[in-house]
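Handoff note, outgoing to incoming analyst
You'll be picking up this chain. Sequence as last confirmed:
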Amino acid sequence: MHKTLLAEFTAREGAEDEVARLILDYARKVREEDGNLAFDVYTRASNPRAYWIFEAYRDEDAFQAHLTAPYGGPFNAALAPLIEEEASVLTFLDPVV
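Most recent structure output, in case you need it:
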């Protein structure tokens, strides 16, 4: 079964350009992962500082491999001081079948 989630965070005022640069670079790397099916970056139309990232992985093993990728830690460390939340808020999703 696919592992699907929504990650959400809000860029601090004044950090918008740096957050966009970081997330787009990170997205490029994640999309190259063998088990990644989707890594789609959105901002809320009514608040362009609010990011929603839709992520899908082939299965739990692919998601675990994503979590241990060498670029994930540095990305999260760079992102943390630039967002309003302590970290990205993750919502795991299940399909309705």
